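Re: that chain you flagged

S.,

Sorry for the slow reply, it's been a week of failed gels. I finally had a moment to sit down with the sequence you sent. For the record, here it is as I used it:
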Amino acid sequence: MIQAHAASLQVAPILLEFSPQEKVKELWLTNTGSDEIRGQVRVNYWTQNNNQDVITPTKDLIASPMVLTIPAGQRQLVRLIRSANSNLSSEQAYRLIVDELPNPKTEEKSGLQLLLKYSIPVFFKTSHINAVDQGLTSLKGMTFKYTDHQLLVINQTTSYKRFSQFAYVDSQGKKTPIQMGLMGYVLNGQSMQWPIPKQLNIQPTGKFVAVVNMDVSEQILQLAH
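Prediction finished late last night. Pasting the structure tokens below so you have them in one place:
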């Protein structure tokens, strides 16, 4: 009988920020399973164009080691070494791709493997400090437009914005979750567009809310009219 083996690769942290002075960061890969894990680490430069993510290979950030084997119950340190110029005029974004590779030993046991793939955001920050408004990430410089079941988010600030716990609240105060996990990122100077379920009755008196970055609470995304 063919069996599927659950993937057991865990990665931490799930987001990395380099300050202008930092040259090295640490990433830990943990094998929580009973068989050894083989994996690889790749780095891509991350931009956004026409409301889509675009990634391209880069040597601005080097992962060491890039290919690894982790025994059962053990963990592996991966050092991320910055090779690009740290004197940046604007924030730069990258995606760290961690792939679990097929393990011939596990395949011999019974067949199917469920292999994990992580895409971890990495940011090279400038000296700019993220603006805060009443304890939450400031949305000054952000524009939100709703048209034909699409929410367009335009980021004219100097830093990325991360959106999660996305919901719609109608005029009676009823909240309807749209995406309770991560909705997505909008990079500095870029825009993204996300679909809104057609069954939602979006009213002029309603509002969209979300948690921005790692804030402790949600805030209203004020729509432009």
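What I noticed first: The radius of gyration is 20 Å.

Talk soon,
D.
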